[in-house]
């Protein structure tokens, strides 16, 4: 699909919704507000909007059919029992994108591609205005699964199919968004394109991101190569949304352990990514005694172990996923080591403290007092700061009411905080947002064996569709 086939951006001229006028608090989050409809939504009355339910078989067929682009490691004997390796802006990602554009256009949507390759498929409503959107991502980890991100987009497509079949006309437009490079696996800023949309990542920074592991291509060159460098600015002002709902697998074990079907996601924990660079001195392994070494690798090992211990002390998490060293020779002590560090906690304050302690400890571990040889120098580069997020109370209530109407049983759902970052983090800065989780087997994700039952995917898709329809209805009553 070439960008020229996308229709021009709709110009939303109507007055901004009241939701857009909600005040933001000091953390940049939407302030809590008492909503007249909240009590009604939470009252426990079983009702679905329009009695619509998704077609489970079609949803799963679509999902597995599109997973032929970028199929990864096999773990079972069935055709569908493979992982995924669909890196952002790769040839396989282009094919999945082309399918998404062609399918949604055939369903009557206008499609807009912005300068980050974010794809917005918008189905018109009775009134003009920003769309109520569902969104997620079609890219995967290099060794990822079939559900992370993909389920959220495909559930949106199934919603469009149901609305068309039922000849439903929503009050306002509804849309489905595919966000580019959510994973940050190929171009090393996660959620980078929703970040540009939110005005939090400069487009030049995003376009200039180089492929990890020494690649030479950039996001911009790959967007251009696969025909997804749109001309519309990636911006919440060019492409406003009335709300953003995201269906996602939990990627953790809580729902499964509690035999529950739906997680009502109230927010996202904070995380920060760093690149830590150590400089020691290349030296001969046989002729250099320990007290004459500046062994960057040994220092890195101590730092990584230390990050684990300090994070545990604060009930936080710390992980290293990328490590490179040079020169990479059996009989040379490495003089240069670079590693990634990912730290996470439920509050920003905890991460502040952890970062400060890590910096102090790494300096100590690099000093000759600890190396018992020469000093190793340490530099930190902050790659991503993602503050803790509180989702919008109105969207959370909408999801709760939808979970109740779909499952009919309050014991089948729970409120949770997401441990992973998602595009909804950035959309929440500019429009009411919340997420819906469904269980995945053993809580495993970012792994080829990632698996969610078809019926759980369909339940999640039903809650997603009901949430969109409920929100659309509330908009018509000017309650959001
Ligand atoms: Zn995801």
Automatic annotation (TrEMBL):
Q: What is this protein called?
A: Peptidase M20 dimerisation domain-containing protein
Tell whether Nucleus is among the UniProt keywords.
no
Q: What are the TM regions of this chain, as residue ranges?
A: none
Q: Where is the Peptidase M20 dimerisation domain?
A: 271-368
Q: Which residues form a coiled coil?
A: none
Instruction: Name the CDD domains on file.
Output: M20_bAS
Recall the GO molecular function terms of this protein's record.
hydrolase activity, acting on carbon-nitrogen (but not peptide) bonds, in linear amidines
The superkingdom listed in its UniProt entry is: Eukaryota
Family from the record: Belongs to the peptidase M20A family.
Q: Which organism is it from?
A: Lasiosphaeria miniovina
Keyword rRNA-binding part of the UniProt annotation: no
Gene3D superfamilies given in the database record: 3.30.70.360, Zn peptidases (3.40.630.10)
Q: Record's NCBIfam families?
A: hydantase
Keywords per UniProt: Hydrolase
